[in-house]
Design goal:
This protein is α/β, with parallel strands linked by helices. It is built from ten helices and nine strands. The protein has a single domain, classed as Rossmann fold (3-Layer(aba) Sandwich), CATH 3.40.50.150. Helix content is 39%, strand content 16%.
Length: 332
């Protein structure tokens, strides 16, 4: 078999992302032998999987999590989102750089850094990556109780995650931060993968396009290769409406959280989101580009804290860190 030549592609992923470059399937098979049944040569003659096959995608994720994140148990209920891990890792590493800018030039590590994952999902991916890479503690919220139970089981079955994630059920699907954030607590950053589409029909059409790109033959029946429930994939008004609502609610908790952030997949939505943030009088807005292969997206982050409030936040965090270090020394 004559190998096709790989197209030249410059990686746009974060330099600390452990998933730079091609997957090492030999290493992944050692981590999860069950992955072997899904591995097959791609058109370049290299080991790969059929990314249109949900079972193959789930097995790959299990292998990646075991190999890179010390996760020995990981599962999601049938039909729930099994997200692409490299892109999720990129988000976390870019957020670490964002936090670094307000932490005396150092990336904050350890459980005193608290992150709120809006829509944690059944996979619990962001808490897994954030805890392994930086030791952060997490709050995971979701409107779906099945997702929360699945994510909770993952944390209970993996000793590295025990006590590191607190789960909160969002009882009102129309709310994002109300009913989840408590006024008295302090959260360093929120993260979110908002529902992308505005209807089930739009979701199905997007799935068909993606699967037809992955397969040589035309697909007429959609199968979600990465899975996903309706609430994970679409909401009324789509991504733009969801982020607008998020900004409106975040203003009500302006001193509770330092940085709010969300992915924005559609470039056409960026200008609107920036306009909403100006209207909400955010004191700082960052647009952080992300890229993986041919896919381009960005993180939009904002804060309502003024310079004095930001300094007070930094000083308080520094005091918490020093107190924690002294306590650890005494216990040694």
């Amino acid at each position: 078999m004559v190998k096709k030549k790989h197209p030249v592609e410059k990686s746009r992923m974060h330099p600390r992302n452990p998933h730079l470059g091609r997957y090492d399937f030999e290493v992944l098979k050692q981590a999860l032998p069950a992955l072997a049944e899904f591995i097959r040569p791609n058109k370049y003659g290299d080991d790969s999987i059929d990314f249109a096959n949900p079972g193959a995608v789930k097995a790959l994720n299990s292998a990646l999590l075991k190999c890179y994140y010390d996760i020995n148990y990981w599962d999601v209920p049938p039909g729930y989102l099994s997200p692409p891990i490299p892109g999720r890792a990129d988000y976390i590493h870019h957020i670490a750089d964002l936090l670094c800018t307000n932490h005396y030039g150092r990336i904050p590590t350890g459980p005193t850094t608290k992150c709120l994952d809006i829509g944690v999902g059944a996979s619990c991916i962001y808490p897994i990556i954030g805890n392994k890479a930086y030791g952060w503690s997490f709050i995971g919220s979701d409107i779906d109780q099945v997702s929360l139970e699945s994510a909770k089981k993952i944390t209970e079955e993996n000793i590295t995650l025990k006590g590191k994630v607190e789960f909160r059920w969002q009882t009102d699907p129309k709310d994002i931060f109300y009913g989840v954030i408590r006024k008295e607590e302090r959260i360093d950053v929120t993260i979110c993968n908002p529902p992308f589409h505005s209807s089930a029909e739009e979701t199905q059409a997007g799935t068909m396009r993606k699967l037809n790109n992955l397969n040589k033959e035309r697909i007429t029946k959609p199968v979600l290769n990465f899975g996903g429930q309706n609430s994970e994939l679409w909401c009324e008004g789509g991504e733009k409406r969801f982020v607008k609502d998020m900004i409106r609610e975040s203003k009500k908790f302006s001193e509770t959280c330092f940085w709010y952030s969300t992915l924005v997949s559609k470039q056409s939505n960026v200008r609107s989101v920036e306009g909403y943030l100006r209207g909400a009088k955010a004191t700082e807005v960052r647009v952080i580009p992300m890229g993986q292969g041919n896919k381009t997206s960005r993180i939009i982050a904002w804060t309502f804290l003024n310079k004095g409030q930001q300094k007070a936040w930094r000083d308080r965090k520094a005091h918490m860190y020093k107190t924690k270090q002294r306590k650890l020394k005494k216990e040694m």
